[in-house]
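Researcher: Structure for this, please.
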Amino acid sequence: MLSIVRVLRFVLLSALAMAANAYAGAEDAPAQGMKQIGHQIAMLGGSMHAMAGFCGGYSSTELAEMKQQQKQQAMAVGFSAKEFDQAFEAGKSKTEARWDTASSQQQRSACLDLKKQFGGRGL
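Model: Predicted structure, token format:
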């Protein structure tokens, strides 16, 4: 089973690579490519939100603020609020399902990895 941290890292790197490609040829970048970036941002946001819920480190207010910022970023590349909410929930649900099938050791390990990457705070 892939670790949750690796999955999140892959999604983030994919979104960043797509963004770099889109901005490299910004005038030629199709709208669909920008929508895909918005989708990746939303999916990653949902996954991070779920992990923060499992691993702690943020209040519900902070999580809501981060979600709103992510929504604004996605909307800046042409993603609608509805599309963001759907993709965010899909990412969150997917991570929750993976979490439910992970062993307690895998869960602890994922949280420790995240805390290392984010300065001891979790996400």
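Researcher: Any notable elements?
Model: The mean pLDDT is 77. Residues 4-117 form one domain.
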